[in-house]
Amino acid sequence: MQPPAQAASNSGGTPEDLRLALRAATLYYLDGLTQAEIAAKLGVSRPTAGRLIARAKARGLVRIEVVVPPTMKDDLHADEERLLEERYGLTEAVVTGHLGRAAGALLMRRLSENDVLGFTWGPEQVAAVTALAPGVASCRVVVQLDGAMSTAAYQTGMEFILSRGADMLRASAMRLPAPLYADPSTVTSMRNDSVISRTLETGRRADTMLFGVGSVSTSTTLFEGSFLDTRMLDELVSLGAVGEIGGRFFDANGAPVITELAHRAVSVPLEDIRTCAKTILVCSGPPKHEATRAALLGGLAKLLVCDIDCARWLLEH
After folding, report:
1. Domain RNA polymerase sigma factor 70 region 4 type, which positions (predicted)?
2. Which pTM value belongs to this model?
């Protein structure tokens, strides 16, 4: 804090005004008194005490420094989180080396007891629900956002996601008994099925959604699970697709890429993801960086959990 005389000359206030502001700021920031206690000590009203503290800060009498403990410098990345929030208009960014644990903690903080919570399938979602703790948070319904049935011997993790999510959050589970893709006539028929249509409509109106992104390559889980083949990938690349959420592909700006797959997908559309109030994107691995950036640019996620390499890449591009 600056000496009162110097502060007075710098800010134009009377010595008595600044002395009182400095005294209030000292009691508040250094001694830990409440505004009510400061008011009683200085003989002023509580609102006046608050104004004195604010005046001291506005006139440069107070300097606040946040210090990261040296032993935690590799785990705390407040600067990168703030820059990501400013750059991409995020509600919150979490940069961490423990994605599953951080995603689970973020979800429990943001979830309301009457929320409908939607999940797509994938390893990031499995890690997030694994980290959920019983009794910390709750919601009304846990719903599946995309079909997961496959003819290949590929484990999507969807049943675990729904079962554990419902158990830990004391919610009911709504399953989507459908493949991710089907021919258009089958999709139309499935949408007329009461169970499938009810689940999709519930997912579209979800209050909170948690998902990962997929890249447009043979390393994506959709290709590994035989949901896509090389012909489909080539077409998607030619049309500018860089990523997908729930089997719905988007370009570098996060805009939907319309192919035959868009008409064959049994999942919540990107437009509904974009309008959801609390969308949590969990990104892991360099192959997903471009898709993550596109999703953020397209407003498909309002909260982000990523590692430091992804954060730096997003800030550099």
Report:
1. 26-59
2. 0.81
